[in-house]
């Protein structure tokens, strides 16, 4: 999947700024991550273009130029864009802290009404603050994680109940492997797509994480070293796919959806894959809390992708009108339905929970979920984690995590 664009080139920002001052017509540049497949009906280009068209109809002097970027290309393309000072007005994808530290963003209160801000899910909204305590972004789409397990494979392997602990995963995976049918016991994707999520679920299960309560990086903590040492042993025992370090999340989700994997960590976004492959019925799989070292996680991983507004083009008033429009329940629910993710607003979440009992289980986990760090240099650290975390299970966990800790402490935003 490749970059999909619609409308004018990114160099049009200065012209739009001038025309806004002269005749009142303004073009906003919106850059968003693509959660679907470029060039198909489920591309996020179609989603955002639909909002842009409806907004323009209601606000004829404001045009929204939409560009979506595949997640696999996101970091490279957006980094280049910002380094070249080709600032969009609105970006959907990254957390705000590093951009705020560089003085690039509007405070959220400048570009979103108080009523819209007040409708954001509090546990995610509080993670949008910069070092000055001011919110510079808003969650747009969210998810929480759980363990999916294949009930048919479990029955075939003589496993009576889903795992609660790491030891249970190890034992169950061994029983699944012993069936000799090429099944994967536990799908462990540590490739560059999203190793930070898979890793974090396991680190949380051992009392570890990326930072401590004060926001100081703790990548090489004893708990984290112990976590990856366990995972390395799990791989060595043949309980996972052959090469987790180079296996991406989508590969394992596809394999689970095809009935080849006994257990895998996932969110509601796995559900469309299951439906598309049509190999598993609703009664063939179930979800439980992610197992921890000594019991199920009570603080699951909660993830949100954010909206930020750049101030280079002086379009605060127009951005505010658009964001209030885009955060309506209609569009929040549309996005959730299209990609089986969760809304970022309280009202849309309540509506979804009432209509969909499967998603309701994930929504109920939001209140106790744990998010990624909000450090100003997190985006820089995250890019390094994506290319490095897999080597914790191919090399020496302590050494790899020690190098990552040094990088995180010295990295700039």
Task: Tell me what you see in this structure.
The protein is α/β, with parallel strands linked by helices and 413 residues long. The chain folds into 2 domains: 4-144 and 304-366, D-Maltodextrin-Binding Protein, domain 2 (3-Layer(aba) Sandwich), CATH 3.40.190.10; 146-299 and 377-410, 3-Layer(aba) Sandwich (D-Maltodextrin-Binding Protein, domain 2). Helix content is 44%, strand content 15%. The strands form 2 sheets. Strands 1-3-2-4-10-5-11 form a 7-stranded mixed beta sheet, with helices on both faces. The protein has a 4-stranded mixed beta sheet with strand order 7-8-6-9. Helix 2 (44-58) links the parallel strand 2 and strand 3 (62-70). The radius of gyration is 22 Å and the shape is globular. Mean pLDDT is 93; it is low at 1-22. This is Extracellular solute-binding protein.
């Amino acid at each position: 999947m490749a970059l999909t664009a619609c409308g004018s080139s990114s160099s049009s920002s200065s012209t739009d700024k001038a025309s806004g001052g002269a005749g009142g017509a303004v073009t906003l540049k919106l850059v968003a991550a693509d959660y679907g497949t470029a060039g198909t009906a489920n591309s996020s280009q179609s989603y955002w273009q639909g909002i842009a068209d409806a907004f323009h109809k209601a606000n004829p002097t404001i045009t929204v130029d939409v560009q979506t970027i595949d997640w696999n290309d996101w970091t490279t393309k957006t980094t280049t864009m910002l380094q070249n000072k080709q600032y969009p007005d609105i970006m959907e994808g990254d957390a705000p802290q590093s951009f705020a530290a560089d003085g690039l963003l509007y405070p959220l209160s400048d570009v979103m009404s108080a009523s819209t801000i007040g409708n954001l899910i509090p546990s995610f909204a509080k993670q949008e603050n910069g070092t000055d305590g001011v919110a510079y972004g808003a969650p747009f789409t969210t998810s929480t994680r759980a363990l999916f397990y294949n009930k048919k494979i479990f029955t075939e392997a003589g496993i009576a109940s889903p795992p609660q602990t790491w030891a249970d995963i190890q034992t169950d995976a061994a029983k699944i492997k012993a069936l000799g049918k090429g099944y994967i016991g536990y799908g462990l994707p540590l490739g560059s797509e999203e190793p930070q999520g898979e890793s974090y679920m396991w680190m949380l299960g051992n009392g570890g994480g990326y930072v401590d309560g004060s926001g100081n990086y703790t990548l090489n903590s004893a708990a984290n070293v112990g976590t990856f040492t366990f995972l390395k042993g799990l791989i060595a025992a043949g309980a996972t796919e052959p090469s987790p370090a180079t296996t991406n999340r989508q590969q394992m989700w596809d394999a689970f959806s095809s009935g080849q994997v006994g257990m895998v960590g996932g969110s509601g976004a796995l559900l469309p894959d299951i439906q598309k492959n049509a190999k598993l019925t609703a009664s063939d799989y179930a979800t439980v809390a992610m197992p921890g070292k000594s019991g199920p996680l009570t603080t699951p991983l909660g993830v949100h992708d954010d909206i930020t507004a750049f101030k280079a083009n002086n379009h605060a008033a127009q951005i505010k009108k658009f964001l209030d429009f885009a955060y309506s329940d209609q569009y929040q629910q549309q996005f959730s339905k299209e990609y089986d993710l969760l809304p970022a607003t309280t009202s849309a979440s309540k509506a979804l929970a009432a209509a969909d009992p499967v998603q309701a289980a994930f929504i109920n986990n939001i209140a106790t979920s744990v998010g990624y760090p909000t450090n100003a240099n997190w985006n820089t650290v995250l890019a390094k984690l994506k290319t490095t975390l897999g080597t914790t299970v191919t090399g020496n966990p302590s050494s790899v995590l020690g190098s990552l800790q040094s990088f995180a402490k010295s990295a700039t935003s």
